[in-house]
Specification:
Length: about 130
């Protein structure tokens, strides 16, 4: 990715992220609420499990990019795309404690891949 592309991508990220101040809604600032807690986890690798319907579970693995009042954005490992997820269908989130990561480029620069169990793929949650 060229330097210009990286700068444009960073500008988009800055535009997307909500700036917190004293007028921000409590749901995004008080960690007793899920969105506020998850905002503290931005940049971490996580596995998010969703309940679809009454008995169908599915999951997504990625880096948490952003959190709103009713959604989260995950950066997928498969194709470096953003996945918009409904926060109300989330049932479980497993958060990696091996570090904080910013982008897919960081993951690749660290030598990690989905197949070789690189530095981000430790622990029983990632399979």
């Amino acid at each position: 990715m060229s330097e210009l592309d990286q700068e444009q991508r960073q500008e988009k990220i800055e535009d997307r992220n909500v700036n917190m101040n004293q007028n921000s809604p409590e749901i995004l600032t008080n960690t007793i609420y899920t969105p506020a807690f998850l905002r503290q986890q931005i940049g971490r690798l996580m596995r998010v499990e969703f309940l679809i319907g009454t008995n169908n579970m599915t999951d997504r693995i990625g880096i948490l990019e952003d959190v709103g009042a009713s959604y989260i954005l995950l950066r997928s490992f498969e194709n470096d795309s953003l996945i918009y997820c409904d926060i109300y269908s989330i049932k479980f989130i497993t958060i990696s404690t091996t570090g904080v990561y910013g982008t897919m480029n960081n993951f690749q620069n660290m030598g990690g891949t989905m197949n070789n169990g690189g530095p981000m793929m430790r622990g029983p949650m990632m399979y």
